[in-house]
Design goal:
By secondary structure, the chain is an alpha/beta fold. The protein contains 36 helices and 22 strands. Helix 1 packs antiparallel against helix 14 and helix 8 packs antiparallel against helix 10. About 30% of the residues are buried.
Length: about 1050
């Protein structure tokens, strides 16, 4: 018995240990609670540390903000104002002092062992700290650029630096559960951001007040900073502490804040005036009154009268609106009067021109009679643009600084408040911890005493039970129940032992019938004797076979035979039983009702000591459902679930069979590859349900076009494959193909998703055909041939078919060779640049050159771009090629500058390079090339084509604007040969128009070409754009463009594109002459 096993410890000792363990756990949790109090104290200390770090960063931000604002005024004055220079130098000293303290803070912080439960992880804080230090290192170079007046984006640099510091302040804030501290921390950070927006407003407006000319974008930027302050103030009033809101309200009621708001109001008024003047200038200038007036004089088309009248009405409304502005001076009213007189004069002259055209007067005579000078209007607009904000820059600087100090006072108050709160929290946590320890210790000792008293009582009962059981062992009376009083667990244990004795007798009888368990098995069991006669069966046997036990016992198992297996099958079965004493497999048997069904059968042989069989035990189960499941799996693996056609897998198997089958070795086989044209439109227009319905209808139509011996398969998506097996000729194939094309091009009536009736969809098909064995004798070749022919059919206009020819492969192969060679050329840099000079048409001086790429092929020699650029575009190789061109052009440009040739270079780029999905953004490529070669951005020009502008997306506009923001001009190449170029000029940041050579070639002899060239020059100059004439082949071309006022020119008359060495010699020879 178990009680006889020896144990090292008595049960009393074990119970004491057992009861002691929970109290050890309680003691553990008490230690945890104490640790939590210690954590609260530590957290309060962390808050103090966080506030100290934040205040140090705040002092640096304050000095950086002032340096940024003074830098804005310094550069606005042109860098020549001694007073600003002294202020800026003094401020830099103050900034450097705070930077030194910040560096010391960074060096003293141990990020690896720092205990700071901040909102962000220590790794993130370290990363931001590191980025701030990098910005600090860049400050020296930034200042040099500012002093040299070469700085651009300096304002963004200071703002980004300050934003990183503010982010650092936010990240070192402690993640504490105290809601009052959390709200104060949030208020503190919001006030720092409010000061930053006020500092940005101070700096930008300081630059505006010190500059000679006000730009609309600067006004908008200044106003946006004011709006940002208002938004932060609104947030503070909605979520900040009540007393913080009161402090803020008191500061906003001061005269300083009211004066700042008054200046903002003036800025908004100035912006409104500028917008009205911009609209008025547009209605008068290009695409306005003067433009439409001249177009009508030249062309006499009615549409220009309508456009003139529309612009006249808009201009009159703009002048009237401007007149309603407050505080207009006498000079401004006179300027408005001049503008009114100008548009009225043009209106009167237009009426005269209309009458003269009706009378048949020649254009040049009409032009002479109605010509007007718009100089006065231009001067009037300039006069109106002289409106000033009437704010003295020194007063603004002082006022804005005092305004920032108002907010700074509140942030300092809040930081002191947070530090006091942290000190109080630390003191409270210490008192709570010592109180808890005292109470917990006393309570723990008292309860521990009670626990050991209870253990003593329990052990006494257990000892009584143990003694009684020992006596039962001595007396051998195991049926005597134990007598224990009470209702506790020990008494229940004694009662359970008594029940176990009662169950013992009952279990002995149940063991005798355990063999009958097989009756409840789900598998059929059949036992036969050595003569193979059935001895017994279980109920599952009767359920599956339909026989009663009495109908099969004493009979051989062949009563179940289905007749589907041969004697050889059974002979093999018994042979296996003799060999291995078991057999298993699938077999077809027959039920009593005659139904044949599949079953999985397992037979085992029972042998006696002499190894003779005495019984055969058979277990089997009905696998009808399993067979059906396998059939479904096969259908899913080989047929398309949507159309019911064979899928790609079965198609390939049938194609392989037809090619290699003996009967088909001497017959032809046709393979068609069918792709539905414009199928994507159906999905995009009516949804994928309609697309699926169309595919099902297309599959039915295809099946109706072929013979029963042929195969139609869905290859994937909207692609189908047809296999025409047996003897076929070209005439039969074309007849079937034409029938397929006719069926598929007929309208499809599709159900609507919203029950709005039927939708009529019209698609067509492109079919590629290949014939075996003529075109090939394996699956891969035939599929590739059919696919190639199908794409040829698509390129020929769709809704047609093409038979595969060997020349198709030759075209594809040739293109692949070019692509492979091009990839090698990119890797080994087999490209060179030739340069075509660009000259000033007014002086004849070289002002720059256009870089043109050539491929120095190792076998074919010099290859021009029209042979490989299109392939580079399709394969994406245009990106590394374009990057190489920019880098090489900048290297050559640096070499020219080192030689004293201060000229420019223009580089062509493709639309793919300008997209933001490029692996390396083009702005990064340009910026790196300029920095690596120390080239000023103004010496590099980027040329784009009109086809690139056709992608009128925000992404493309943004990419071009980013290039222009670098200081690089944008040239539009081949102007006038694309579509809708005029409407895009105002959307895209274009600096120079290049007139296409096709217009210049005919301008001397063809009046239409001449008029187009003159119109382009007029449009360009009216938009303040420079113009370059391409294709100058003769002196006449040169003189003609010069007479029109075209700025620059290039062409073979000046020089053809030449290698870089020859270009340098040409430039130097021109300088010597």
């Amino acid at each position: 018995m178990i009680f006889n096993k020896p144990y090292n410890l008595k049960i009393s000792t074990r119970l004491k240990v057992f009861f002691l363990l929970p109290w050890l756990v309680i003691l553990y949790f008490g230690a945890i609670q104490t640790s939590q109090y210690l954590d609260e104290m530590n957290q309060a200390q962390q808050v103090s540390l966080s506030i100290e770090i934040s205040l140090k960063i705040d002092r640096l931000i304050f000095e950086l903000q002032k340096e940024r604002g003074l830098t804005e005024g310094f550069l606005a004055k042109g860098g020549h104002n001694e007073s600003y220079s002294l202020q800026l130098s003094s401020q830099r000293i103050k900034t450097d002092l705070q930077l030194k303290k910040f560096s010391q803070l960074y060096q003293t912080i141990d990020f690896e062992n720092m205990q700071l439960d901040s909102i962000a992880s220590l790794q993130v804080i370290k990363s931001v700290f590191h980025r701030c230090m990098l910005n600090k290192e860049k400050l020296v170079q930034q200042r040099k650029n500012i002093d040299s007046k070469l700085a651009f984006n300096y304002f963004d640099y200071y703002s980004n630096f300050i934003e990183q510091l503010i982010r650092l302040m936010a990240q070192v804030q402690i993640n504490i559960e105290n809601s009052e501290h959390s709200r104060s921390s949030l208020d503190f950070i919001n006030l720092i951001r409010l000061q930053e927006k006020a500092g940005q407003e101070r700096g930008v407006l300081n630059g505006i007040l010190n500059s000679k000319q006000v730009d609309i974008s600067q006004l908008q930027q200044t106003i946006s900073y004011g709006d940002a302050q208002n938004k932060i103030l609104a947030d503070l009033f909605s979520i900040s502490e009540t007393h913080h809101q009161q402090w803020l309200s008191n500061q906003l009621d001061t005269s300083i804040h009211q004066k700042v708001m008054a200046i903002r109001k003036r800025l908004i008024g100035k912006l409104a005036r500028e917008k009205k003047l911009y609209n008025l200038e547009h209605e008068l200038g290009y695409d306005g009154i003067i433009h439409h007036f001249k177009n009508y004089i030249l062309r006499g088309e009615k549409q220009y009268i309508e456009k003139f009248n529309k612009s006249f009405v808009l201009a009159a409304e703009d002048i009237s609106a401007f007149r309603q502005l407050n505080n207009l001076t006498t000079e401004e009213l006179e300027s408005i009067q001049v503008l009114e007189q100008t548009i009225n004069n043009y209106k009167q002259k237009l009426l005269i021109a209309q009458q003269l055209k009706l009378e048949g007067v020649a254009i040049h005579n009409i032009d002479a009679k109605v010509r007007l000078d718009a100089t006065a209007a231009t001067i009037a607009i300039s006069q109106l643009q002289q409106y000033r904000i009437n704010v003295v820059e020194e007063n603004w600087w002082q006022l804005a600084s005092e305004h920032i100090d108002l907010f700074r006072e509140i942030s300092i108050h809040i930081s002191s408040e947070m530090k006091d709160l942290a000190t109080q929290s630390e003191r409270k946590a210490g008192i709570a911890m010592f109180t808890f320890i005292a109470i917990f210790t006393v309570g723990f000792l008292c309860v521990l005493y009670l626990s050991f008293t209870t253990v003593k009582r329990i052990v006494k009962k257990i000892t009584h039970i143990a003694d009684a059981m020992k006596q039962m062992q001595i007396d051998h009376k195991f049926n005597v129940p134990l007598a224990v009083d009470g209702s506790d667990e020990v008494a229940e244990m004694a009662h359970a032992f008594n029940q176990m004795l009662a169950e013992r007798k009952k279990s002995e009888s149940e063991l005798k019938i355990s063999a009958a368990v097989f009756k409840y098995a789900s598998e059929a069991i059949m036992i036969t004797n050595e003569n193979n006669l059935i001895e017994t069966v279980n109920p599952a046997f009767c359920t599956i076979s339909g026989y009663k036990p009495s109908e099969v016992i004493g009979k051989p198992p062949n009563v179940l035979s289905s007749g589907k297996h041969t004697p050889a099958f059974y002979h093999s079965m018994y042979k296996e039983l003799e060999k291995s004493n078991s057999w298993q497999g699938e077999i077809w048997n027959k039920r009593k009702n005659g139904e044949i069904y599949p079953e999985f059968l397992a037979i085992s042989v029972v042998r006696d000591t002499s190894n003779k069989p005495i019984q055969y035990i058979s277990l089997f189960s009905d696998i009808t459902k399993h067979k059906k499941y396998e059939e479904d799996i096969w259908l899913q693996a080989n047929y398309d679930s949507l159309t019911g056609l064979p899928n790609r897998k079965m198609c390939l198997e049938r194609l392989h069979f037809e090619i290699n089958h003996e009967k088909n070795q001497y017959n032809q086989l046709a393979l068609m590859f069918i792709d539905l044209d414009r199928f994507k439109n159906v999905n995009d227009t009516w949804g994928h349900n309609s697309g699926d319905e169309l595919l099902k209808l297309a599959a039915l139509r295809l099946n109706n076009c072929i013979r029963e011996s042929d195969t139609v398969a869905r290859f994937g998506g909207d692609e189908f494959v047809v296999i025409l097996a047996g003897t076929v000729n070209r005439i039969d194939i074309e007849r079937i193909v034409k029938k397929i094309l006719a069926k598929l091009s007929a309208p499809f009536m599709l159900n609507s998703d919203n029950d709005a009736g039927k939708n009529e969809a019209v698609v067509s098909a492109s079919i590629g055909i290949t014939i075996a064995p003529t075109d090939g004798n394996n699956v891969e070749v035939l599929l590739k041939n059919a696919d190639t022919a199908m794409y040829q059919a698509k390129e020929s206009g769709r809704d047609g078919y093409k038979f595969f020819t060997s020349s198709m492969n030759e075209v594809v192969t040739a293109r692949m060779k070019v692509e492979q060679a091009l990839r090698k050329a990119v890797k080994e840099q087999e490209f060179v640049l030739h340069y075509q000079p660009v000259v000033s048409l007014s002086t004849g001086d070289f002002i720059g050159a256009e870089a043109l790429i050539r491929w120095q092929h190792p076998e074919d020699g010099l290859v021009y771009p029209d042979s490989f650029i299109s392939i580079a575009e399709e394969t994406g190789l245009i990106e590394p090629i374009g990057q190489w061109v920019i880098e090489q052009a900048c290297q050559d440009l640096k070499h020219w500058h080192d030689l004293g040739l201060k000229i420019q270079v223009a580089v062509n780029v493709s639309s793919r390079q300008c997209k933001q999905t490029s692996e390396i953004p083009i702005t990064s490529v340009i910026r790196k090339a300029l920095v690596d070669n120390n080239i000023a951005p103004s010496y590099l020009k980027i040329e784009i084509t009109e086809s690139l502008l056709m992608d009128n997306s925000q992404e493309m506009i943004s990419s071009l604007q980013d290039i222009r923001d670098l200081g690089v001009d944008i040239h539009m190449d081949d102007f006038g040969t694309g579509y809708s170029s005029l409407s895009y000029l105002k959307h895209f940041p274009i600096d120079v128009l290049k007139i296409d050579r096709s217009f210049i070639e005919g301008a001397i002899s063809d009046q239409t070409d001449a008029s187009l060239v003159e119109a382009v020059v007029l449009i360009g100059h009216s938009l303040k754009l420079k113009l370059v004439g391409e294709g100058i082949e003769t002196q006449q071309h040169f003189d003609y463009l010069a007479s029109l006022g075209c700025d620059y020119g290039q062409g073979y008359f000046i020089s053809k594109p030449i290698p870089v060495e020859d270009f340098i010699d040409l430039c130097q020879s021109r300088l010597l002459s």
